Structure formats: structure tokens, C-alpha cells
Amino acid sequence: MGIWAGCEIPEELYYDVERDVWVRLHEDGDVTLGMTDAAQTRAGKLAHILIKKVGKHIERGRSAATVESAKWAGPLPSPLTGTVVANNAESFRADVLVANRDPYGEGWVVRLAPELWEDESAHLVTGAEAVERYRERIREMGIHCYRCEE
Q: Which secondary structure element, helix H or strand E, spans residue 53, and what is its range?
């Protein structure tokens, strides 16, 4: 795992760096999406999240969820086209700060059945390239990651 300015960058994940979204590819071909550590830090403590329902079709670049915090409100754009097969709305209802505390684990947002993985994943980065691209982004934006306290 890469760590830069307190921001975790797990090398096994795929990233849409410009959209600050991580992607975990599962053995069955589904993918899980969530906010990166840098994204949750920039947003600040989450106040509300509205996640797309199971069965909803999402085009690449369209919103998988709408995120609201005291500092920011906006979409969590999907880096892939697909259908929502699961969402993490229940976890966010129980603890809206779950993505602030654990962005790559319990703070996942949606699980998709991607339709165009081979084509659309070409713009995602992983491994050492992802760590380097995030280091550059974090440095340029002056981000220092933190976790919300219990």
C-alpha cells in the first residue's frame, strides 16, 4: 500500500484519479466502487449520501451516488458503465461517516456488474502507476488525509 501525506493508496485497486473513485475487481467480474481517501478528506465529514438503488443502470461518468458534506455536495461518478447489483446504503444509514473512517473497506458505495470492462477499464490505473499519479495529485492539491474520530 502506498501512503502519501497521510493518504492511503492501496495498490491492488484500480483508480479513476480525475474522479477520485476506486474500483475493486472481483473474481465474478463485478466491481465495487467507492470514494478514495483523498476524496473523503477533500469532502470532509459526510452529512448525507444518496446511493443508486439495486437494478439501476449507470453510464460511465454518471452518478453512482450523491454525496453531501459541510464543505461539498456533488456526485460520485461511476468510472464504468453497468448495473448496480448491491449498494451500501444500510451502512451509511447506520453511520454516515463510514467512508470517512474506512474508505476502502466498510465505506464502499456500490457494486456494479460492468458491461464494458475491457474497453472502459483502459482509463483506470493500478499498482505503482496509481500510487505515483495520486502522489502527484495530492501534492498539487495540497491534501493531507485524516480519518474522522469515533
A: none
Show the cell assigned to 39.
Answer: 476524496
- The per-residue pLDDT for 148 is 59
User: From CA 72, how far away is CA 48, in angstroms rounded?
Assistant: 11
d(CA 93, CA 38): 22
Cα dihedral angle (57, 58, 63, 67), rounded to 10 degrees?
A: 50
Mean pLDDT, contiguous 10-residue spans, the chain (150 residues): 74 95 97 94 91 98 94 93 98 94 95 97 94 88 69
Q: How far apart are CA 77 and CA 95, in angstroms?
A: 22
Q: How many CB atoms lie within 10 A of CB 119?
A: 12
Q: Which CATH number fits domain 21-125: 3.30.420.40, 3.40.50.2000, 1.10.1060.10, 2.40.50.100?
A: 2.40.50.100
In degrees, to the nearest 5, what angle opens at C-alpha 110 toward C-alphas 108 and 114?
125
